[in-house]
Write a structure and sequence with these properties.
alpha/beta; transferase (chains A, B); MnmM_MeTrfase (chains A, B); methyltransferase (chains A, B); Rossmann fold; methyltransferase activity (chains A, B); 5 helices; seven-stranded mixed beta sheet; 7 strands; homodimer
């Protein structure tokens, strides 16, 4: 396939932007797949800050990173990603959001626009120019529809001098396929 | 910029898919920029079929390819791209559409959905599996808005087993920025 599937496309961007020693944030740790990917990219001298409000998610993610021998590169916070400014230093190169619910977890615990939009703004503020903020949106459940619309509205109104906002989505899939926003920070307004 | 601008992204796909000796189609020759790019990719043993309904466009494009020393790789047709089946053999690896009007030309001569949608279907039929059909949509003028909606509707209804349809667009630009559809042929239904 010449056209990259969504996850492969995100990972290409993250691979291009992240180098040994960089700082990255996984704003929605979940089962830790993205956290592990980020930890591998930032190397031994880099750091990944991971957020989730479910302890079982963080435990699962930590186990995944331990198994891969890279747990010391990550710091996990049982906190809302909307609070990331309190825990993450400025100078972040990449932040990933994978919205919705924890696969295999409690389906009633979902991200919602009330915290997601402030968290996205915090992430954008923490990024260095040239840094990447990736957001996977799922509109297939009711809260996801409301949340996706709020995120799309927020991103639509970002000033073009502040960020490039790319929408990357497959247009002929059924049942509300995910939408990716890839946001590249330009300057600070 | 890590996120590729639209034209650079299209050219990356075309570069990946086209090799020496391949056949490509520029369905909207215009001033011939895409025709030249395709001719360079298919090499001396390849072939580019170019369509435009304005003779001045074809003359300008042919001059551009002559200047680059690659005019013998292209065949130009003063015909609607909706007729491409009559002139192009099967086995095409890539087709490009850049809809709207000829830059610097007669603004009253625009592509319209009546011919564009049949032309897109013909292009998809001519492609080999793995081939790429790229479509740049401009909704900034009245006919463009109607045409874009028709094309988006056509693409939305392509069966996922027939093609992957990627939408690639910048989400925070003003004044109806272009939308790219990158369509990768899978099988023939």
């Amino acid at each position: 396939m010449v056209i990259k599937p969504m996850l492969a496309y995100v990972r290409t961007l993250l691979t291009e932007v992240l180098n040994e020693g960089d700082v990255a944030v996984d704003a929605t740790v979940g089962n830790g797949h993205d956290t592990l990917f980020l930890a591998q990219l930032v190397g031994e001298s880099g750091r990944v800050y991971g957020f989730d409000i479910q302890a079982e998610a963080l435990a699962s993610a930590r186990a995944r990173l331990e198994e891969a021998g890279v747990a010391e590169r990550a710091a996990f916070f049982l906190e809302s990603h909307a609070e990331m400014r309190e825990f993450v230093p400025a100078g972040v190169k990449a932040v990933t959001f994978n919205l919705g619910y924890l696969p295999g977890g409690d389906l009633s615990v979902v991200t919602t626009e009330a915290s997601t939009v402030p968290a996205l703004q915090a992430a954008l503020d923490l990024l260095v120019p040239g840094g990447i903020l990736s957001v996977m949106l799922y509109a297939g459940h009711d809260e996801g529809k409301v949340e996706s619309e709020a995120v799309l509205d927020w991103a639509h109104h970002l000033h073009k001098k502040e960020a490039h906002v790319l929408m990357y989505r497959f247009w002929n899939q059924k049942n509300s396929p995910p939408i990716l926003l890839a946001i590249e920070k330009r300057g600070r307004l």
